Amino acid sequence: MTTPAAQNPATPETDDAGPADPDAAVAAHHGDPPAEQRAMARAAAVVDRGHRDVLAVTGEERLAWLHLLLTQHMSELGDDTGTEALILDAQGRVLHHAAVAHTAGAVYLDTEAGDGAALLDYLTKMVFWSKVEPRDATAELTVLTVVGPDTPSVLESAGLPVPAAPHGVAPLSGGGFVRRTPWPGKDAADVVVPREEADRWWSTLTGAGARAAGSIAFEALRVESRAPRLHLDTDERTIPHEVGWIGPAVHLTKGCYRGQETVARVANLGRPPRRLVQLLLDAGDEDLPRTGDPVVRDGRTVGRVGTVVQHHELGPIALALVKRSVPADAELTAGDEDRVSPATIDPNSYEADSATPPPGRAARARAKGGPGAGS
């Protein structure tokens, strides 16, 4: 979606400029990023997320087949229901994250821009004799996202269905669907429409009361919501437990998917080596840290900077993966070279480890009569 007011800074082309902007293909803002954030927080705004790749899986065995491949419980996913799901490697590390919608005889998976081809290749190789047909639907469908507490009224005013929160889905008669989501912000809905009708739906949604907003505002509220984003807030070692995807995207009581052993072992016998936290940055007028920069404590690297944003109320903040041993009140720095900023962990983002041992470890202790036997 590109309107006359839409703007997007140039994509970095050199290593000195930092990593390339994954949202370069869509508008970064529409003239006033802080005001766009405020609209998302207090009313409603609409963001073009049409650079996301969209896959569709049809066929009578689609749910049972996906149940064997995805981390989410798919076999009983009801009609007109959404969720999130992952694809893991054999060691349980995250390869793909997708938002899911099951509606109108198909399961739709929308994922990060550029990831769709690899995900489709994997799914296609796993078809064998199953009665399923995965395909690339990116040329057919595009994603517009409405964010803010007024999301239901905007959808209604635009003549769209208002699915039940937080994961309801409603099909559209002309193709596509509306999917409620629990983040970012207080309410949100993905309006997935035929790509050739994107301009019309953008005008309809802004006419229904949603302020035009860009990816800068969306990312700021996502970071505030502590919702991780693949490739930005994860690295090649990330397992689901570290970033809060157990529950939203991983179902612990199902099996039969690649990487399940690691998921079960960490859930039952131990705790993940890192945790996702929100950092409050004291950057002042200096350059902000970048994705991939180190988080340092007492001269030692203890983590990795993820998404960095300027929040309209909190100022500069970031998501970061830090070692589990880092305490909530640690004095940290984030960044590298001339962009190092003092940083503190937002205590609201730090979930202290329970004194109760994981269930598997407690069971072992009970069996041996050792510490934790009375838990």
Features:
375 residues; alpha+beta; Alpha-Beta Plaits; Elongation Factor Tu (Ef-tu), domain 3; 6-stranded mixed beta sheet; 8 helices; disordered C terminus
Main sheet? 6 strands, mixed
- Uncertain runs are 1-5, 9-15, 362-367, 370-375
In the CATH hierarchy, what is the class of the largest domain? Alpha Beta
Intertermini distance = 56 Å
The CATH level-2 architecture of the largest domain is identified as: 2-Layer Sandwich
CATH homology-level superfamily of the largest domain: Probable tRNA modification gtpase trme, domain 1
Proportion of β residues?
Answer: 25-35%
General form: globular
How large is the radius of gyration? 21 Å
Number of helices: 8
How many separate domains? Answer: 3
Level of helix content?
Answer: 10-25%
How do the strands line up in the largest sheet?
8-9-10-7-1-11
Reading the helices and strands in chain order gives HEEHEEEHEEHEEEHEHHEEEEEEH
